[in-house]
Each structure stands twice: as structure tokens, then as C-alpha cells.
From TrEMBL:
Positions of the Amidohydrolase-related domain: 78-361
Record's signal peptide: none
Name of the protein in its database record: adenine deaminase
Enzyme Commission number, as recorded: 3.5.4.2
Amino acid sequence: MLENRFQWRNRELREHTSVIDGKVSPTIVLKNGTYLNTYTKQWQKTNIWIMRDRIVYVGDELPEQCAYAEVVDCDGKYLVPGYIEPHAHPFQLYNPEAFAMHGASYGTTAYINDNLIWNFLLNKKKAFSLLGALERLPVSMYWWARFDSQTALKDEEELFSTDNVLSWLEQPSVIQGGELTSWPSLLDGDDRLLYWIQEAKRLGMPVEGHLPGASEHTLTKMKLLGVSADHEAITGQEVMQRLQLGYQVGLRYSSIRPDLPVLIEELLAEGLQSFDHLMMTTDGSTPGFYENGIMNVCVEIAIEKGIPLADAYRMASHNAANYYGLIEELGCIAPGRLANINILQHKADPHPISVLSKGKWIGKSDAEKQPSQKVDWASHDIRPIAFTWDLTMEDMQFSVPLGLYLKNDVIIKAYAINTDVTVDIIPSNTDDAFLMLMDRNGQWRVNTAIKGFTNRLGALVSSYSTTGDIVFIGKSKQDMLLAWKRMKELGGGIVIAHDGEILFELPLTLSGSMFAGSITDLMEKEKDLKQLLKDFGYPFRDPIYTILFLSSTHLPYIRVTQQGIIDVKKREVLFPAIMR
């Protein structure tokens, strides 16, 4: 089979039809099961024949030739399509392989992934090679092509040039433009951005928006300019408005916005009867949120809240596949599709007891374990950071009068710094702390203060950030130096120091952004990190997102970026970055 969007070779296609003729044995037969036909929304008794990674028959018959087939009796079991996560950010401390394989064991066998991190970490050639390696996993991996960085870069025009954006759009595994966090620029007349959208549409791709709080006029204008979908609705009324304007809508259930239960309640109260243009997404949640799986959890919520059973499963499979133009490949159980199938104990229990993905068993209840790691990250230039520079006390000179005030996990306002930040240690009677963003190559820095993150922590240093630059937060400059030295030794990660002692470390040896171990181990590490920060005065739910979004200019009101401290609404640099 070719890696080009699952186009099988002529020889393979002939072999598939020979199975129907009884000349060739299938590789797996699922007999006597009851499956959900997502086209008719009916449950039907059936036998399913699979040839390697493809479903070749669904119907009443059993194959004449079964000599080489694994025959599985599914009597009393229910079969639904493998679930699809339609809006994944597969690098929230975890890496795409570990995330996808963890999700697959719970029935999520296909992912539409953000490509943002590869723009920062790899050149095009290496990034596209890595996509090829990820395609060879026993899960279905697809990608977006980002049109903007969602921050303020020093080299934005170079990273997000027309040549780079169009090269991404032309990749076989790229099936979407967006998500479009720079939509205000589009409305302000950015014709280069409009050209990229038009190119995506010309290639048959949808374009996803990022439109929190958008008015009817804004939603209408964005539809006219080519935006196809949005996942930012936070009320049932906002979902209805988007549906009425012809949007595909993702209902979000994430660690930072667990809106799905209330959205469904409000949609049903509004009298919504058609669910064909709804999907569900976990929108790049932090690791612990995935303890019980990914889309299986969303389907469970949909069923519990009263979505008709067939529609609940379609919202996690057929609807997404149809929207992305993948319905001939996945999203349903039908001839010609990839063999992504979840076997359920009960019709209304979306947590599979066995999972097939690309015709391979993933987490089968009585047999195989998850496949071992297959991606050789180092061969794709994803390895520990080799820092060639060092931090000094001279770098930690703080004199900017304006700081960042955390209002919640991700909303940040400006504040006038009244605390003395020229000292080596900020007293614990205030919740001000030093904040520094340092170029990962040591060429520039931004020094300010942050209020509301901690009232006594010595230091947190993190190479995990929006752009892969280094975040320093803390009360003590000496602890910041100590945490930096340990993070440097690790080759990237998150390190916490206090009173001259290292209290916590999370190695992120995949380019300083991603954990190389199992999701289970990472969940334990994240739990320890959250508890430790809570003990040191962090008042909100998700410090991982706080760190990640310090530089994210798609959120209000002020951010610290490569260019300096930015007023997001005015798009002005208030205090520029300092060259070292």
C-alpha cells in the first residue's frame, strides 16, 4: 500500500476483489457481530472480512476461502467505526506517537493534527520525512497546515512564507488549512493570508477557524472568506448560530474548556434534531485528562446527555471523516475503508473491549499489548537540546515597569509593577515573581514580572513553551540559575528549584518540548508537578497551559513573545526584547 492517502496499488486492489471471489483468504473475519451502519444509522447483524488493513466485505456471507484468516466470533458484541479526534495538538508534553497509541488502545484510531511545533523545530524536508514515519504507525495520522504562529516571532515572514505554507498544503497527509488564529488580520485586509486560504480550498481542503466570541457579522464574513469550521463556541446558542451559517462545529471537551456536557444540554433544549455537522474534540488537553481515553469519553458524555445513540457514534467518526473528505477511507464500517473498528461489550458502552486499527489489534482484551515505539526520533533531528550558551546573573536584570497579571489559567492582563524587582529575591508577602523569556539559542531575552503564578516558589524553568524558547518564573535568581543548570543537563524539560534544592524535574528530551516515555509515566509526572505548584501558591487548574500560552497572541490581553511584551488588542510591542 502506498503512503499517499491510502491509495492501494492495482495488484492489491485485484487481490481484494479476489477475496470476494473466494480465490484468496482474508486475514481477519469478524463474524456474527452487530455493527452500526453510519449511513443508515441502523444496527445490523453482519460478518466483516478484512484483508490486511482494508475492509473488503460487510454482509451476511462468510468467505469461501478462510485458510489464512483469523476468525473472531463477535456474537453478542457491537461494532462501531474507530473514533476520530478531529482537532489534536499532539505535543502537550507528550509526543504524537505516544499520544496516538495511547488513544488507540481506547478506540481513537485516527487523528487530525496541528503541525505548529514542526514549524519551530524542523525544516521542511525533515518535517515531511517525520510525517512519513508517523504515517507508518498502526493508526491514521493526518495534519493541518498552519497559516500563522499564534505568537509574535522575530522571523515570522520566514517561517510562514508563501513557499512554506504551500509546501505544507501539498503534502499528502495534510488535509486542512488552519487553525486560523490570525483571523483579525484577515479581516483587516491581509491578502497573503486570503491567498493561502484560497489555495487550500482549491486543493479541496476545508479551513478551520478560531473564532471565540465572534459576532454574526464576523462569522458571516469569515464564511465568505473561506472558513469552513470552528470549535470555539462555548454556549449552545453559539453552536446553533454557527450551524445556521453553514459551519461544521467541533464541540469541545478539554482540560481547559470541558464544555461538552453543557453544550449538548443547551443544544437539545434548543430543539436541535440534526447532528450531522457536529464533531467532538479534546483540543490538545494536558496528559492527565486522557487517563481514561480520548474520544470514547466524549461519546460516553454524548450518550449520557441524550444524543441519539447512532448520532453519538457518528459525531466521533462518520461526521469528521465526511467533513475532511476521508469518508472513502475511514469513519464508517463499509467495503473499501481502512479496518479501524471498535468492538464493544454493550451498544451504549463506547469503551471498546478490542480495537482494530489498520487491520491490526491494538490493546486486544486477551492478547497483544500496544506496539513498542516505532519512530526513531533522533533520525529526524528530534533529540535533546545541546545548549551552547549559559545563563548569568547579568541576564537577570529586571527594570521594566509593566508585568503580566494572571487572571486565570490563560487570560493575562497588564499591571504596573510596584514590587521591587531589582532585588535577588522577591519577598513571599507578594504574589509577584520574576518572569523571563530567553531565546533557546541564547541570543535575546525579555525580562519582566508575573503576578498570580506563585507567592513563594524559588524557580521554575521550562523549555516547553509556545515556540520552544525558555521560560523562567520564580522568586529567587539563584534558584533560577540552579533550575536552568539542571534543565540544561537534561537537554530540555521542566525543572523546579527552591531554597537551593531541585524539587522536581520532567525531562523533555524530544527537542525540549516532548516526553520520550509512556503516557502513563507522564501522567504521574504531571500530577506531581501540578500538586507542587499548587503547594507553592498556583491558584488555577492548569499550569501547563499557563506556561504554554504565555506567548500566545490569540488570547487576551498581553503576552511575552520573541519580539517583546505585546499588547494583543493593539498589536503593539510595549517593551522590545533585548539582544544579549
